[in-house]
Automatic annotation (TrEMBL):
Subcellular location: Periplasm
Domain SsuA/THI5-like: 42-248
Family: Belongs to the bacterial solute-binding protein SsuA/TauA family.
Record has Manganese as a keyword: no
Taxonomic lineage from the root: Bacteria, Bacillati, Bacillota, Bacilli, Bacillales
Taxonomy, superkingdom: Bacteria
Chief localisation class: periplasm
Official protein name in the record: ABC transporter substrate-binding protein
Organism this protein belongs to: Fictibacillus terranigra
Length: 329
């Protein structure tokens, strides 16, 4: 009888272990390469901190790759499963004749996220003040720079003739370059722009997001091969993202700031709140993950204006809204 009891106990133990392992096997690890760490991506951090991804059986491995070229390299070399980066990068890859195209499947932000920061606080601001100035811009061919150029031209300023345009500074070092004295104006993301205001280093005078209109500015994308093999993972991933987008849209900036604060340890919660509120005010956060064709066409108009559109990109080839439309049902 004792032997039988021990046998049953042993079987139950192995059964429990087997069950636990089975549960673990159901979880999927997804490696995300984000182009930068920014409050601009608040819904992503909400999805992580609120456990929306975990609820969908997904464990997120998030790495910041600092720059569109590095982010796309990580994706193409299988260093990441999903890239969070400007949609223009998928157009560049397609133009090079890739046999495994990069597909945009969920949109995170819908406007440019940068701001024009002046070294000196003007009594009033007009775009004409930039003529003859030194402008510290973003990387050539990147979405921030193209949206910036589009906005400048909209106000009658040729960035390559009417000012000294600096574009040879690495993305991560642009704030430091401005802080050390380079440039009269700089194009910055948050929270750096607001942080400079706090320290008296510079002053936000305009929003490139408001100037350049609706764009698929930052999207989640993956290789076609990964999408074919992991459609269920992407379906659950997008569903979790949409929950977070709804949270940010329907809750106060203060509530969102408190949740995403762990991702910005060197930034005060009050400043995070200010930035979230600023982005919400100009409708930068997409309220759903669907990348619409109209926004895709506007993106190409901005790229063409900047002389960076290699060829017209087929929306139906490089955008897949199956997962985003399913998530919003």
């Amino acid at each position: 009888m004792l032997c039988f009891t021990l046998l049953v106990a042993t079987c139950l133990l192995f059964s429990a272990c087997s069950s636990d392992n089975s549960e673990e096997q159901k979880r999927d690890k997804v490696r995300i390469a984000e182009v930068t760490r920014s409050i601009f991506y608040a819904p992503q951090y909400v999805a992580i901190e609120k456990g929306y991804f975990k609820d969908e059986g997904i464990d997120i491995d998030l790495k910041t790759t600092w720059g569109g070229d590095k982010t796309m390299t990580a994706l193409l070399s299988n260093g990441a499963d999903i890239a969070l980066v400007g949609s223009e990068t998928s157009i560049y890859v397609d133009a090079q004749g890739s046999s495994d195209p990069v597909i945009n499947f969920a949109q995170l932000t819908q406007t440019d996220g940068t701001f024009l920061v002046a070294r000196k606080k003007p009594k009033y601001f007009s775009w004409d003040q930039l003529k003859g100035s030194t402008f510290l811009g973003q990387r050539k061919g990147g979405m921030p720079q193209m949206a910036g150029e589009y906005s400048l031209k909209k106000h009658g300023i040729n960035p390559h003739k009417d000012m000294k345009l600096i574009q040879n500074i690495d993305y991560a070092n642009i704030p430091n370059a401005f802080a050390s004295g380079t440039g009269d104006y700089v194009q910055l993301f948050e929270p750096q722009a607001s942080l400079f205001e706090q320290k008296g280093i510079g002053y936000v005078v305009a929003s490139f997001g408001e100037e350049s209109g609706k764009l698929p500015y930052t999207s989640y994308m993956t290789k076609q091969s990964y999408m074919k093999k992991n459609s269920d993972v992407l379906k659950r991933f997008t569903r979790a993202l949409y929950k977070a987008q709804l949270y940010v849209e329907t809750h106060t900036a203060k509530e969102t700031a408190a949740i995403i604060a762990p991702h910005f340890e060197d930034t005060s919660v009050d400043l995070i709140e200010k930035v979230v509120d600023r982005y919400k005010g100009q409708h930068s956060y997409a309220v759903n993950p669907i990348l619409e064709e109209g926004a895709w066409n506007n993106l190409q108009s901005v790229m063409k204006e900047a002389g960076e559109l290699p060829k017209k990109a087929d929306y139906n080839k490089l955008v897949n809204t199956t997962f985003s439309r399913d998530a919003t049902k």
